[in-house]
Specification:
Elements: H1 3-26, H2 79-92, H3 97-103, H4 116-121, H5 131-138, H6 143-160, H7 167-171, H8 179-191, H9 196-214, H10 224-247, H11 252-265, H12 267-280, H13 285-295, H14 303-316, H15 329-332, H16 345-352, H17 358-371, H18 374-387, H19 392-404, H20 408-421, H21 426-438, H22 442-447, H23 449-455, H24 457-471, H25 479-491, H26 496-508, H27 514-522, H28 531-549
Helix pairs in contact: 1-2, 1-20, 2-3, 5-6, 5-8, 8-9, 9-10, 10-11, 11-12, 11-13, 12-13, 13-14, 16-17, 17-18, 17-19, 18-19, 19-20, 20-21, 21-24, 23-24, 24-25, 25-26, 26-27, 26-28, 27-28
């Protein structure tokens, strides 16, 4: 068994144990509330002025598997529940996205059409040829002609062989926004100037650059420079798609990409491309789903148009089972947050059982998380991750549930992947740092602080305070804790709580700098006579007295 498989298996066993404890607690009366211990002399209660974002589980240590205060407790585990999570643990160790997806257990009690989930998993298959393989083939004699032949064969299989359905669309994913992808596509077109496939490769590169420029914000929030960049890239892509369709009328990838551009810039373009696609390839998932997206009211469509598009998909699913993945969209839209509706867990769970939609199941997971049902959050978030394994938001969602179930090890695995998928998202990286700290991997957490600081200095300061605060809870105060508080004060010298925390940790570690650190607390200016600062200074005097009179023993907190 590989190291990653072993770590996932250990996390699974811990999860099963925690959920079993939750189940037992659910069936028993809640114990009487214990009295709170008196406050200690250490700085554990101190908080920075700029606090971490509210509501994130990693702001503090999870509640040892107990439900959130005022929220319903997690559901009791049945034997089927246990078998379900055991199967997830087994397949999570698989590296290949498609194989992992196909090995997943389906959502319990679902009404999905036959073959819908497995078909949807096939859309996670790697492109038939990597950019490196394409580049290498183009360097061989008659390589461009061979590449054209291979793409033509894949297109033919798309129409004839269900196992290869939609893979011609996947093949062009290799031509992303990278400079190398653009160079390779242009090289192919120069070597094969009459190639429909080379034209789509070049156009796909331009289109991806344009979509990246637009981003995911509402169109009204896209800046003028970004909008101009998007439009210029789209303008280069569109005629290439037209030319490709003239050369190879069955190449529906071209009109599907035009539909996508039309959703951004022109209803007329979308309509024209949609009609062309439906004439060429009416059973394609990408053609049908493109119609469904454009029919949604938030894209200018209507519920009537959406229902008609979904019913069309249902009728075609017998010929292409992948279409079963979208038959819940009409019932899902009115209860999903994109419609403006409040998230109701029971309603989102109901529509999730109609079709294997990772997006709908992510909404259900969020709703259950708000209700404090962390077991069901885990179930639905796992299905969302199953179908969208590189969606950092869905990974973060499941990690949140795992933290609330007190399983930081597995949460760290999810967040490490989320950071790989969204390396410039400061919130995801901050969450990873907090979870690594709670998982007992403080050195790994601290190593992530510098990359976070490059993304967001303020978030890095808040996150470092969290890490140091956890390390300040002991019971051992080693070099890692000392380094953490020293760097914290160097980065945020204006935060009094940081100075106080540093004094406490250095005192506990018997660091040579402890006396000076305590003096820094005592010398802190307090022109307003803050009760908080006054209490902190009183603790610092106790620490100083202890340091001077009892240097051999550890101080009392």
């Amino acid at each position: 068994m590989s190291p990653s498989a072993r770590s996932t298996r250990r996390a699974l066993l811990a999860l099963a144990c925690s959920l079993a404890c939750l189940s037992a607690a659910h069936a028993q009366p809640a114990p009487a509330a214990a009295s709170q211990p008196a406050a200690k002399a250490g700085p554990a209660a101190a908080k920075p002025t700029a606090k971490p974002s509210a509501g994130k589980p990693s702001e503090g240590r999870p509640s040892e598997g107990k439900p959130s205060e005022g929220k319903p407790s997690a559901s009791p585990l049945s034997p089927a529940d246990r078998a379900y999570i055991e199967r997830i643990g087994e397949v999570e160790a698989l590296v290949d996205d498609e194989a992992r997806c196909k090995g997943y257990p389906d959502l319990p009690d679902n009404q999905w059409l036959a073959g819908a989930a497995q078909g949807r998993c096939s859309l996670l298959r790697k492109p038939a040829w990597s950019l490196e393989q394409i580049d290498r083939l183009l360097g061989e004699k008659d390589g461009a002609a061979e590449l054209d032949r291979r793409f033509a064969e894949l297109l033919d299989q798309h129409y004839r062989v269900q196992a290869q359905r939609e893979q011609i669309f996947r093949a062009f994913k290799a031509f992303d926004a990278s400079a190398r992808a653009g160079e390779t596509a242009q090289r192919w077109l120069r070597a094969s100037p009459r190639s429909a496939y080379a034209r789509v490769a070049v156009a796909s590169h331009y289109q991806t650059i344009g979509e990246d420029a637009r981003g995911i914000s509402a169109y009204s929030q896209v800046g003028d420079a970004q909008r101009q960049d998007m439009q210029s890239q789209f303008a280069k892509a569109l005629p290439l798609y037209d030319q490709a369709l003239e050369l190879e009328p069955r190449l529906s990838v071209a009109c599907v990409q035009q539909m996508a551009i039309g959703r951004h810039v022109s209803q007329e373009l979308w309509q024209r491309a949609s009609e062309r696609c439906r004439a060429i390839d009416p059973d394609s998932y990408y053609v049908v789903y493109g119609r469904i997206l454009a029919s949604q009211p938030n894209w200018g469509g209507s519920m009537q148009a959406l229902r008609e598009a979904v019913e069309d998909a249902r009728q075609r699913a017998s010929r292409n089972p992948i279409l079963g993945a979208v038959v819940g969209e009409a019932e899902g839209f009115p209860v999903s947050p994109i419609s403006g509706a409040p998230m109701v867990a029971a309603e989102l769970a109901r529509v999730s059982k109609l079709a294997p939609s990772g997006t709908l199941m992510s909404y259900a997971a969020r709703a259950y998380g708000q209700d404090g049902d962390h077991w069901r959050t885990f179930v639905y978030a796992s299905q969302a991750v199953r179908f969208w394994p590189h969606n950092a938001e869905f990974r973060n969602l499941r990690a949140t549930a795992l933290m609330m179930l007190n399983i930081p090890g597995w949460a760290a695995i999810d967040l490490e992947q989320a950071v790989r998928d969204a390396p410039r998202d400061p919130d995801v990286r901050a969450q990873l740092i907090k979870v690594l700290t709670l998982a007992g991997r403080a050195d790994d957490a601290i190593a992530q602080l510098q990359p976070l600081r490059a993304l967001s200095p303020q978030e890095a300061a808040r996150t470092r305070f969290f890490v140091c605060g956890q390390l300040a809870q002991g019971p051992q105060y080693g070099a890692t804790a000392v380094r953490c508080v020293n760097e914290l004060v160097a980065e945020a010298p204006e935060i009094y709580e940081a100075t106080q925390m540093r004094a406490f940790v250095l005192l506990q570690a018997r660091d040579p700098g402890a006396a000076a650190a305590i003096d820094a607390v005592l010398d802190w200016p307090d022109p307003d006579g803050s009760a908080h600062v006054r209490a902190a200074k009183e603790r610092a005097r106790m620490w100083k007295a202890d340091l001077e009179t009892n240097k051999a023993a550890l101080p009392v907190r």
